[in-house]
Amino acid sequence: MLKAQSAIGKDLDSLADVVSFGVLPAFILFQMAASLPGVAFSEYFVFIIALASALRLARFNHDTRQSEGFIGLPTPANAILLAALVLWLTTGGASWMPLLSKWHLFIAAALLSYLLLSPIPMMAFKFKSFGWLENQERYLFLIFSLFLLIWHVYLGLAFVILAYISWSVLRLLLPKRNT
Length: 179
Known about the structure:
Helix 5 runs antiparallel to helix 6 (153-173). This protein is mainly α. The N and C termini lie far apart (38 Å). The protein contains six helices and two strands; from the N terminus they run H-H-E-H-H-E-H-H. 65% of the residues lie in helices and 2% in strands.
């Protein structure tokens, strides 16, 4: 609003992001893990997501390679994925809840923590212009995402983030096009 920037402002923004997109999702997983049977106190392992989020955001503030896209899963995408899956599991997917164990949540926490810190380049939705040619990939992904959200809000949202991750991995593996 003031069009002012400072190093401390950037760090405070990241601190707010760590709480919103790192600590809160970890607490949500913790509550879910604590309600499942298994080894006592093992549910604390899910806080690895909060640690990975903090490290990812600290790196992001000082990584000049992330001006056009992201390297590693952005923390908001991670939080959206976890929140959407938990909302789906506790509402429409309640029949899956008895099949869950703490191990499923530990594996999810470890995998998502890896993705947060991974060297995988991820698409950013930073538009320099709104022309079709330079943003074709973004527009097609947004249209695809809209169909997923219309199909099923919570599960569709989770699938949007999973598609985002999958697309980023595919972009890394596929040969580059000459344009």
